[in-house]
Specification:
The structure holds three protein chains of three kinds.
Chain A (H helix, E strand, L loop, with lengths): L7 E10 L2 E11 L4 E5 L6 H9 L6 E6 L3 E2 L5 H7 L1 E4 L11 H8 L6 H5 L5 H13 L15 H14 L4 E5 L7 H17 L1 E5 L3 H7 L2 E6 L2 E6 L1 H5 L2 H8 L2
Parallel strand pairs in A: 3-8, 3-9, 6-7, 7-8
Antiparallel strand pairs in A: 1-2, 1-4, 4-5, 9-10
Chain B lengths: L1 H6 L4 H22 L11 H27 L6 H20 L12 H5 L15 H25 L4 H20 L11 E2 L3 E2 L2 E2 L3 H27 L1 H11 L1 H6 L4 H27 L1 E2 L6 H14 L4 H21 L3 H16 L3 H23 L27
Antiparallel strand pairs in B: 1-4, 2-3
Helix pairs in contact in B: 2-8, 3-8, 3-11, 3-12, 3-13, 4-6, 4-11, 6-11, 8-9, 8-11, 12-13, 12-15, 13-15
Chain C lengths: L2 H8 L2 H18 L6 H16 L1 H4 L3 H10 L5 H14 L5 H9 L2 E4 L5 E7 L2 E5 L6 E5 L4 E3 L4 H16 L4 H14 L4 H11 L3 H16 L5 H14 L2 H11 L4 H50 L7 H22 L7 H23 L8 H23 L15 E4 L2 E4 H23 L1 H11 L1 H6 L4 H23 L11 H14 L4 H22 L1 H18 L10 H4 L1
Antiparallel strand pairs in C: 1-2, 1-5, 2-3, 3-4, 6-7
Helix pairs in contact in C: 2-3, 3-7, 3-9, 5-6, 6-8, 7-8, 8-10, 9-11, 10-11, 11-12, 12-14, 13-14, 14-18, 14-21, 14-22, 14-23, 15-16, 15-17, 15-21, 16-21, 18-19, 18-21, 19-21, 22-23, 23-24
Classes of the chains: A alpha/beta, B mainly alpha, C mainly alpha.
Chain lengths: ~250, ~400, ~575
């Protein structure tokens, strides 16, 4: 796939911290509408890759393009978010002293400038959208609850809901199943698959069961570059992947 | 749009606050001017001035609370904006003295004659006009805050680092204003004011008027703060306070929000300073002292940060205590103030108002859930816990 | 800098004391009439000579008196001869009389022909014995008569006086006499100088004499050759004094000498600039070490532990008060130990400040970990309490903390003056820094500290008692502040506000250097110190400081985590 037809295009991206190469000539392409799982042992560079895409970390070298044309290395977090890339963090980060409703309202796609928000009055359409999202993430009865009072799993879901409220073209989801019960993990997988119907999604996950249940193409990262790519069965069969994971 | 914006500021809690303020603005001057001196309801002039001073402190506390309580920017330099506003007003008052100064120079203030300055420096031009001085009262602190904030927030200086450079800012200004050649009276500052807008600054009626003006300014700024914090922008500010980088990933330009609220707050501090100066009759570089800025923070912490009423209440209570202590037990005051810092941060992190509303809501909730369990159809509509850090959902309470 | 301080630096301590004492004496003597500075200086020299060379001073004044009284007799030529006779005695005791003669203050009593130094007092004169310098009563206006001198005699007197002092037995006196000639640039002294040079054995005195001679030569009507040699001697001095001398004679010179002078001035300018820079660096390093001392404890509590300790300045202040208490106790009970007072104060200050630090950590700060802004407020409160406590105990005014002998005085390196207290503080700051580095890098305690700072949970699970480490680390930082207080008590006023003056600077240093990095603190302190001192000559002390603050504010915008920032993901965690 070429840069022009891709949604996200990383080519030869390197990042180092004090001599430690977190990303080493990483190249990765996500097609529009695609859902991709990214796995890899600790320190493989998964989170750093997310940081580079969302503008938190500047790469030392390499290209990052969105929609085939927009150079992300020159943009900051806010404008990348505005371009349509949403991110869910490894540790769920919601606004704890806001209610569930307010969390969603803040995430909702709307003008982001200070004067726009100062004089903003919530519209009917926005209310409907929030109601829909509340249903989707099953937090309708908790709408007035402070986010701080939610359980860990509910926070994960709220964050996914906020991601959807942004209505991004591409969702970056970092370990959505971390700390969830098996039942919650299964539900989360279903939710993500629903979302993947009309969004591109990149999921970073440790949990192989979860990745298997997504049933999508898998990229294995190791020491900052791509080790293997393909279906989960394909990569599991790869000698090097087995070696990296089991340390043989 | 504007009306709905301001309308948002109104609820029961704001109503109680505004009613109390309105009563004070009417009753205190009346008690001073209309009630004869022997009457138990007479308010002596010194008390009017003292309370007027408290109100300007309350306004300063409000400004600090807006940035600290709602946006998490702990400013240790707000006294700088307060003092700049004060100096702008002081310059107007100096120009009003005219030939009544010791040296009788119609243009030059006394200290310039004393220093053999041949003519008025350019930055003193215009301060003979009240409207110009009033403009500068908000503009000078506003511009300084804008420039400072633009640099600081753009480079993402946050937390303790920001606190320390705000302290450096006010310290640098302190040193600068001590210099005679700055043209602001050096060590002695500006004083010996005669009149304001043509009224004798010592007269009872002027004092009462200044008290009322301080009250009105406080009410006005309170309504603005309330409207700002209850708007969607206010929610973004709280989001920035709690999870700054998360807010960025949602697409908000955090630096713009901070800059907006920071500049607004500095302007309010400037207004507070401008009202403070004619009431105490002097402005000198001591007002820039870093210790002053830190003291304001404790007023806010005592009252309850993130609650606007708390900031006002804290400022008035702590300063009342200060007045009382420094008169009755002067040696004890610093122990008391120091102890207050420690006790409040350790045991009362939400401050008086925050703790109170938390307790109040918990009580209501218990009652409500008891009703619910007793067979009520409706689940409790109020949130289980009021967000302690925001005034938004906190309940009005009788403490005011 | 006050006049006396400057004085102290230019002249060795003992000489300075004598000088101060003598000046007081001459001023008392002076009360009646005006006396030129050079005269009082010369007087001092003679008196000093009398003190340091008792063998000569013991000469019997009565043996000299007839010779002195002879001065009043005869015409100018006789007086001149008599001056020669006095000089021939080689006794410095005759100098005041000669000096007074030159200034027209020497009178003789008509009744008995006795000679006195006289000054107007009321309607008559106050008389002073010219040999013992004791008061000799008063005399009416008509009872005494001035001994007249003409210009020729004055010249003779000057050179006579010059040779008297230039040949004095004490080298310090000879040196000062030569320095006096250098200032007066009197060509008549050349002869005396030549004679003195021929006899001179001390190299340092010889150099000064040569310089004095050069100065006199330039002022004389000697030939170009002599003058060129003189210019060279002055050029090699390289001091401001030599330059101003050359500049002042430049206009009166012609031809090659003038060119040589111009060249010499340029050369001296360069050398002065270099020395000035060196002196500025020295001052900067000295200020830097003060900053380092103040900040280094903070670098631990703030930099390593992440605790914003606004009471840090008070720990410094308490260290200074410990020094005060130690010195008070020594003064009252064991005055002999005074020179060791600082060594006694150091461990005590460490323990007292450290103990208070541990108490603060256990009592307040440990409840506030992870809430830096709250810590800031609570410790500010503590700082107010500590200040007020010290104010109640010791009073609000400055307390006197003395410098031991080895901390006072100064010495010169080239054209730089180095005071001992500044020098020891620099040495001390470096020692403290090195010691701290050693503790943190080489001891088990340091290892625990670093482990806890880097990963508290992991450290705890490995069996390190983290609360214990926290308390001791905070105690260490506070104790170091106390030690700094002992040093700062030597150069700053010891008052309850002492700490306040350092807290902002300390934070600036730590933040500028980079939090969590002791080397950064060192470099930060030294950089800020030197920058400050280089700005001062152009901007003045206050404006210089403002500029440094503005610079730091801008610097933090550019590098929000300081000079030596930690990078990478660890920072975000």
């Amino acid at each position: 796939m070429t840069r022009a037809t891709s949604l996200l295009y990383l080519d030869g991206v390197s990042v180092s911290f004090d001599g430690f190469k977190a990303l080493n000539e990483l190249s990765l392409t996500i097609a529009p509408g695609e859902m991709r799982a990214i796995i890899g042992p600790n320190g493989a560079g998964k989170t750093t890759m997310m940081d580079v895409i969302t503008g938190k970390t500047r790469p030392d070298s390499g290209d990052v393009f969105f929609n085939g044309a927009v150079d992300l290395t020159g943009e900051d977090e806010a404008s990348i978010a505005e371009l349509g890339i949403g991110r869910k963090f490894q540790k769920p980060t919601v606004f704890e002293s806001h209610t569930v409703w307010d969390n969603l309202e803040l995430a909702l796609k709307a003008p982001r400038g200070p004067f726009a928000t100062l004089f903003h009055t919530i519209t009917g359409a926005e209310k409907t959208r929030i109601e829909d999202l509340l249903d989707l993430i099953r937090l309708n009865d908790k709408r007035d609850e402070l986010a701080a009072n939610l359980s860990h799993g509910q926070k994960q879901w709220l964050e996914i809901g906020m991601l959807l409220a942004q209505d991004p073209k591409l969702l970056l989801v970092d370990e959505p199943a971390a700390g969830m019960t098996d039942a919650e993990t299964a539900e989360t997988a279903e939710l993500l698959k629903d979302i993947a119907n009309d969004h591109s999604v990149v999921v970073v996950e440790h949990d192989m069961v979860f990745v298997r249940s997504l049933g999508v193409k898998v990229t294995v990262l190791h020491e900052g570059s791509v080790l293997a790519e393909g279906s989960l069965d394909h990569v599991s069969a790869d000698e090097r992947v087995v070696e990296v994971y089991l340390g043989r | 749009m504007m009306t709905s914006f301001l309308f948002r500021a109104m609820d029961a809690r704001a109503g109680i606050f505004l009613a109390i303020m309105a009563a004070a603005i009417v009753l205190v001057p009346a008690g001073n001017l209309l009630v004869p001196e022997g009457s138990p309801f007479h308010v002596p002039t010194y008390a009017v001035t003292l309370m007027g001073k408290y109100l300007t402190y309350a306004l300063l506390a409000l400004a600090v609370d807006l940035v600290w309580g709602f946006c998490g920017i702990l400013s240790l330099g707000h006294a700088a904006f307060f003092a700049l506003g004060g100096y702008a007003m002081g310059m107007y008052l100096m120009r009003q003295i005219g030939t009544r100064g010791v040296y009788g120079d119609p243009i030059l203030p006394d200290f310039m004659v004393f220093l053999n300055w041949p003519e008025l420096p350019w930055y003193w031009y215009g301060f003979d006009m009240f409207w110009f001085a009033a403009l500068m009262v908000v503009l000078v602190p506003g511009v300084l805050a804008f420039v400072f904030g633009w640099f600081a927030f753009r480079s993402r200086v946050t937390g303790v680092y920001l606190s320390i450079i705000t302290q450096a800012l006010t310290y640098a200004l302190l040193l600068a204003f001590f210099r005679n050649d700055m043209g602001f009276g050096g060590n002695n500052g500006l004083t010996d004011f005669k009149d304001i807008l043509g009224f004798d600054i010592q007269a009872d009626s002027t004092r009462a008027g200044l008290f009322a003006a301080s009250g009105i300014a406080l009410v006005f700024c309170y309504v603005i703060c309330r409207a700002v914090t209850r708007s969607k922008l206010g929610k973004v500010l709280v989001a920035v306070r709690d999870a700054e980088s998360r807010t960025r990933f949602l697409g908000y330009r955090v630096e713009h929000y901070k800059l907006f609220v920071w500049t607004l707050s500095a302007m309010m501090a400037g207004v507070a300073g401008a009202l403070y100066v004619p009431q105490v009759g002097i402005i000198n570089p001591g007002e820039f002292a870093p210790a002053n800025s830190i003291e304001v923070v404790i007023w806010v912490a005592v009252g309850g940060r993130g609650t606007l009423v708390g900031a006002v209440l804290g400022a008035v209570l702590v300063n009342f205590a200060k007045t009382w202590f420094t008169a009755a037990l002067p040696d004890i005051w610093l122990f008391a103030l120091g102890g207050l810092f420690v006790v409040v941060t350790l045991f009362l992190p939400k401050g008086i108002v925050g703790t109170f509303s938390q307790g109040w809501t918990a009580l209501r909730q218990r009652k409500a859930s008891a009703d619910y369990e007793a067979g009520s159809d409706e689940p409790p509509s109020s949130p289980p816990h009021a967000p302690s850090a925001t005034a938004r959902d906190a309940e009005p309470q009788p403490a005011e | 800098m006050g006049g006396t301080k400057k004085f102290k630096r230019l002249i060795p301590r003992d000489a300075a004391e004598r000088l101060l004492g003598m000046r007081r004496l001459t001023f008392i003597r002076n009360a009646g009439g005006p006396m030129s500075f050079s005269r009082s200086l010369l007087l001092f020299l003679f008196l000093a000579m009398g003190l340091t060379a008792p063998a000569l001073a013991q000469s019997d004044p009565e043996a000299l008196r007839p010779l002195i009284n002879e001065l009043a007799k005869g015409k100018y030529d006789d007086t001149q001869k008599q001056i020669g006779a006095l000089v021939a005695t080689g006794d410095p005791a005759v100098a005041p009389a000669l000096e007074a003669l030159g200034d027209g203050d020497l009178y003789f009593r008509k009744s008995d022909g006795m000679v006195f130094i006289a000054s107007k007092a009321g309607k008559g004169y106050a008389l002073t014995d010219p040999l013992t310098l004791e008061s000799a009563g008063e005399a009416g206006r008509r009872d005494v008569k001035k001994i007249k001198v003409n210009n020729k005699l004055r010249r003779v007197l000057r050179s006579a006086l010059g040779s008297l002092t230039l040949m004095a037995p004490d080298p310090a006196v000879r040196k000062q006499a030569a320095e006096a000639v250098f200032k007066s640039r009197d060509p008549d002294s050349i002869e005396a100088l030549d004679a003195a040079l021929a006899a001179e054995t001390d190299d340092s005195v010889r150099t000064v004499m040569e310089q004095a001679r050069a100065a006199a030569v330039l002022n004389s009507d000697l030939g170009d050759e002599d003058k060129l040699a003189a210019v060279e001697v002055l050029a090699s001095m390289g001091t401001r004094q030599a330059m101003s001398l050359l500049l002042s004679v430049q206009s009166s010179l012609e031809g090659p000498v003038r060119d040589a002078t111009a060249a010499a001035v340029t050369k001296i300018e360069k050398s002065i600039a270099a020395w000035d820079a060196a002196q500025n660096i020295w001052y900067g390093l000295s200020l830097g070490s003060v900053l380092l001392l103040a900040a280094i404890g903070l670098a631990i509590t703030f930099g390593v532990m992440g605790v914003i300790n606004m009471a840090h300045g008070e720990m410094v202040m308490i260290g200074a008060y410990v020094t005060f208490v130690v010195q008070e106790m020594i003064r009252t009970s064991m005055p002999g130990l005074f020179d060791y007072s600082l060594f006694i104060a150091l461990p005590l200050a460490f323990l007292v400040s450290g103990a208070i630090g541990v108490a603060i950590e256990r009592g307040v700060i440990r409840w506030l970990y992870g809430r830096p802004l709250e810590t800031l407020l609570a410790t500010w409160g503590i700082s107010l309490i500590l200040q007020q406590a010290v104010r109640s105990l010791f009073g609000p005014t400055n307390r006197e903390v003395g410098n031991p002998d080895w901390m006072s005085g100064a010495f010169e390196v080239g054209q730089m003056t180095i005071t001992y207290n500044r020098m020891w503080i620099i040495v001390f700051a470096m020692l403290v820094f090195a010691g701290l580095m050693l503790v943190l890098k080489k001891t088990p305690f340091g290892l625990y500290t670093r482990a806890v700072t880097q990963n508290r949970r992991m450290a705890a699970s490995m069996g390190i008692r983290t609360p214990w480490v926290d308390a001791l680390t905070f105690g260490l930082g506070s104790g170091i502040a106390g030690i700094a207080g002992v040093a700062l008590s030597q150069i700053d006023n010891v008052s309850p506000n002492l700490g306040q003056g350092y807290i902002i600077d300390s934070f600036m240093v730590v933040v500028f250097g980079g939090v969590g990095n002791l080397w950064g603190t060192l470099v930060g302190a030294m950089t800020l110190g030197v920058v400050n001192k280089f700005l001062e000559p152009y901007a003045g002390a206050v404006l210089g400081k403002i500029l440094v603050l503005v610079f730091i504010i801008l610097f933090i915008q550019k590098r929000p985590r300081g000079l030596f920032a930690l990078k990478g993901r660890a920072v975000e965690a």
